[in-house]
Amino acid sequence: MKKILLIEDNDDIRNNTAEILELSNYKVIMAENGKVGVEKALEHTPDLIICDIMMPVLDGYGVLHAVHKNDSIKNTPFIFLTAKTERADLRRGMELGADDYITKPFTGTELLDAVDSRLKKIEMIRQELSPGLQGLKHLLQATGSHDALHALTEDRNINTYKKKQLVYTEGNHPNRLFYIVKGKVKAFKTNDDGKELVTELYSPGEFLGYVALLEGTTYRDTAQAMEDTELAVIPKEDFDGLMNDNKEVIQQFIRLLAKNISTKEEQLLGLAYNSLRKKVADALVILQQKYRRENETDFAISINRENLANIAGTAKESLIRTLSDFRNEKLIDIKNRWQYHHYQSKKTGTFTQLKLPTFNSCKPFSARSLFQDILFYHILYDQLAILMAQAF
After folding, report:
1. Does the reported pTM lie above 0.70?
2. What end-to-end distance do the CA atoms of the chain give, in Å?
């Protein structure tokens, strides 16, 4: 049940408004002036605040200012309830950050429509933004910018990339945004010895290359197709136009960038401190989370050992041993694809066939113990982080 804080000094209006909201299955918290309203907002953290402007002790503008100064409630939707209809008063309230106005006298329908609209919008915006088209579509629907998405992805050139073909290279300047229509793409960094570390995985419906565009810098990693892939190419100018015309969109991309930073920090900590078993288990979990389809009961993926080792951040030989352990413990299933390699003998001119098994697909997580192992390591890491913080 959604909680609504109603701040109104007139007893009749306060009680009548509360009754209408309660009949619509909202829990109403009432306050008779602005000071009490701020105290109750901090105590109950409501989903929506309806506040009168002209009140004793602390007026509506003061309440809105106080709400924005407190992190726990600063993003709460705020509706002014007032008899004042002067344009200057409306402008002042909106500039302070009010989401809507309801002018007295009002009908029950007007009140409920305004409340329902604000709650739905904030619910959509607060949801996690996925890094691809679906997340952006969700955001644009929430902000009423449907045409922007349509213009961004409509009638774009589709480029085809073969397996292992590079999409962009570290150090180059970006001039386009890529959208995955079909296939899989990995982003990786390479050290001086030529060893790769996969930094990100992309699947259909996701954008890539936007970090460099937003930062105005060169690419910080290299992107390569993991299989035959189709990418829609979006010019930098069109992407910049979307960012400039939609404040909510750029705010959500900032949240996405912050989330990516947190993910990279966790990855670095894992590479530094996690055991080999934990690294491989985390790599399998990442693949499942990234590429598992909806309503898919058993997850399977075709990936070679080298790519999986680069995702886990370990040597291929160590990966093979760990996968064998997981298979022996019945945590995953490994299906071998036999590849026939033909070699011609220089002496006899005959052909020899060698059968080499390669890691082709896995069907992980049929047993709960793998998740329990991962949960154990995450709990252990949290405890270690606390101890390190106390030590330093």
Report:
1. no
2. 44
pLDDT in 10s for each residue of the chain, 392 residues = 899 999 999 999 999 999 999 999 999 999 999 999 999 999 999 999 999 988 988 999 999 999 988 888 888 899 998 776 655 666 777 777 788 888 888 899 999 999 998 888 777 655 544 444 455 555 555 555 555 555 555 556 789 999 999 999 999 999 888 888 889 999 998 887 778 888 888 888 788 888 888 778 899 899 999 999 999 888 888 777 777 766 666 666 666 666 666 676 677 777 778 888 988 888 888 888 777 776 767 777 778 788 888 888 888 888 888 888 888 888 888 775 433 333 343 433 433 333 333 334 344 433 334 444 444 444 444 444 444 444 44
What the chain holds in terms of domains, given with CATH numbers, is: 3-126 (3.40.50.2300), 133-271 (2.60.120.10), 274-391 (1.10.10.10)
Q: Which two tokens stand for residue 198?
A: 């996969």
Q: Which two tokens stand for residue 180?
A: 């995955």
By the 10 Å C-beta count (0-12 exposed, 13-18 middle, 19+ buried), 296 is classed as exposed
